[in-house]
């Protein structure tokens, strides 16, 4: 059974249809990439999966590990193992990084009947994971994402992913605004989290990210539908030729 199974998914925003029949199956341990032009529905798909308000599913189904994702609220999806790394991470003034991480981890542990982790044990665990991502103690003491550079925000999100250990990770244009050094650090952090049990959906405009995070399958999304699927050669084809053929074919 696929870890994530999407069938005939239709969704709209403010009454405007955006997703027009998405079919997607991701096995446990697989990394799938979705590429497509602006306005194709890439971010809408990520928000629908995460349960963001304002995105209405009008038809179809989404199942995670056999469970109906559409029956769950956003916080219930997080407990079930869904994680969204956003294109533009939000700032949380007044909430330190360490407090945010510990509250998130303990909320999830409590929801599944596990004991909460104590402050010292948590500090030790976070510092070990943070070090590999170039997240300093100073960053953890600061309010979440406040005054962070683009690269710091993205490293901070990958740290959240490493600490929460989700079952299914959605990376929405994680490479947006990153220089090559930051891209390498973030990609190495993502690759370190690849396991036979964890699946990922990587949403990106550019082939350069896929040089660092190598997907098992690449899909082209245009006009709210998956127009073509393939291997890494598909990303290289898109880099050379752009999306014009897919946009015209779908129009």
From TrEMBL:
Please name the SMART domains in this protein's record.
AAA
Q: Where is the ABC transporter domain?
A: 4-248
Q: Which UniProt keywords apply?
A: ATP-binding, Nucleotide-binding
Determine if ATP-binding is one of this entry's keywords: yes
Q: Which Gene3D superfamilies match?
A: P-loop containing nucleotide triphosphate hydrolases (3.40.50.300)
The UniProt entry, under InterPro entries, shows: AAA+_ATPase (IPR003593), ABC_transporter-like_ATP-bd (IPR003439), ABC_transporter-like_CS (IPR017871), FeS-cluster_ATPase_SufC (IPR010230), P-loop_NTPase (IPR027417)
Gene Ontology MF annotations = ATP binding; ATP hydrolysis activity
What family does this belong to?
Belongs to the ABC transporter superfamily. Ycf16 family.
Mind telling me what this protein is named? Fe-S cluster assembly ATP-binding protein
Record organism? Thalassobaculum litoreum DSM 18839
